[in-house]
Amino acid sequence: MLPREHQQELLSFAYVRAISARAGVVCIRFDGDYGVDLSLRAVSETDAGFIDGGDQIDLQIKSTTRANVNEKTISFDLSARNYNHLREANPNTQRFLIVYIMPVNEDMWLTQSDDELILRHCAYWVSLEGHPATKSTTTVRISIPKENVFSVAAITAMMQGRQERNKP
Q: What are the structural domains of the chain?
């Protein structure tokens, strides 16, 4: 059986992939650990059919059962390495951190029936672009507004924001 951490990672990817599929974007997974777990790419419809639209956003995905969640924010300890990667501007793409909050009890992570498949709790997003450098060599506590639910609407807004940045 997979270790708990690997199960969490795979379930967080499944969550992001499910939302991305419903948003109508292509989801690409990377091999290796280069600071990006998944990229989302726009798909455009032309007279000839559907084609790669070219617009892309990159995602670093984390899952946790230990985030501090209150009415307005989610606090999460991110590695200094990931923080520094995500805060740097990249002219080719925009990067987002996705944090999937999972129940502590593993039996609650996923349930299924004939009618539904349920991944419990929620994922949230934040852009760290432009945040200040850190002197920490271990972790950085970040705060994500609770309103930043990773959703179809969020992906749509992220992709539209990317299109706006690409305009001359």
A: 4-166 (3.40.1350.10)
* 88-to-76, 81, 153 alpha-carbon distances in Å: 19, 11, 25
Question: Strand order in 73-79's β-sheet?
Answer: 68-69, 73-79, 139-145
Q: Phi first, then psi: what are they for 45, rounded to 5°?
A: -105, 130
The predicted-structure confidence for 93-130, as pLDDT tens digits, reads as follows: 899 999 999 999 999 999 999 999 999 999 999 999 99
Tokens of 147: 């309103």
SS3 sequence, 60-74? EEEEECCCEECCCEE
Query: CA–CA distance from 156 to each of 24, 29, 55, 71, 164 (Å)?
Result: 9, 19, 12, 25, 12
